[in-house]
Amino acid sequence: MTHGEDNAHITVLPPDKEKIKKLWTVAGILGVVTAIEFVIAFTMDAGPLKTAIFIGLTIVKAGYIVGEFMHLRYEVKVLFWSILIPMIFVVWMLVAFVYEGITIADGRL
Amino acid sequence: MSSTTTVAPGRSEWDGGVSPMGVSYGKLMMWFFLLSDAFTFSALLVTYGLVRSSHKAYEGAVDVFQFSQAYWPIPEKVFEAVPFLHGVSAPLVFVGIMTFILIMSSVTMVLAVEAGHRMDRKAVEKWMLWTILGGLAFLGCQAWEWAHFIHGADAGDAVAEGTTFFGANLAHNQYGPPDFAAFFFFITGFHGFHVFSGVCLNFLIYYNTVMGTYDRRGHYEMVEKVGLYWHFVDLVWVFVFTFFYLV
Known about the structure:
Number of strands of chain A: 0
Strand order of the largest sheet of chain B: 1-2
Oligomer: heterodimer
Largest sheet of chain A: none
Structural class of chain B: mainly alpha
Strand content of chain B: under 5%
Low-confidence stretches of chain A: none
Radius of gyration of chain A: 22 Å
């Protein structure tokens, strides 16, 4: 590769050790949470509690990915809430439709 | 690219001239695209929740579970195969490997973004290559997973009285009700298509980096924008993993 000679004017900064360490920490947390999910998957009986734990852990993982990797935690508050608030509709949709499904299963519809 | 321009007295930051959201136009539009994409995936997963909860759940003990059209299958009994280990029951191990691959490629992507902030072209190239490799590895795993799902297990299962069916298509499958395979194809397929387009975009970024486009432009913001997309693909997988494979 012969490109790059004419780019001598570009100043390359040294790696930000602290920031990189933090990113790997987040990666470690994501890995550990996934491992915990695996343990729960095979040691707990199915039921509402198990489902609730899985959803809780998923939200933890989502929080780290969106907050740290996608940097949303450090953005302006207006942007942060513009992305998060519309998600309320999804939560409501999930509750409403799963309730509907259970009603169908019970033969009440 | 945060805007630190001061707002003139008597005017709001929404009156123009500054960026109230504190990000560039391109990044803001990427965020809103991802929001709309999140709605699309939510619609698929919520529909899965509706249809699954409207089917009967398996109520017996897990270790004597058998595939049947009468109830929704337990995912860990469907996804228990690993390449090169024929006949060995390893529930969810392969999908765990896929999850790990995607999380790792998300980490290498964010490292590429970090390198871009420092104008370090060599480091961006390195981390973009790792990210592309991770994406391709994930797609390869998914191809295997699909092939195995479609061809089915050795025994097959009775679809109706007196007929045996192996594997799955959109109309029938050996694992449970027809909707089960249909949702598997649609949800993991739509996600896989996102991974595929993400790999294409990552390659484009890698190419532009090698060609010195971003050095000439003076910033590596494109790496950030495509990075947002790539993290989103990882994010969706976290939810697919939970709702399709674990719950």
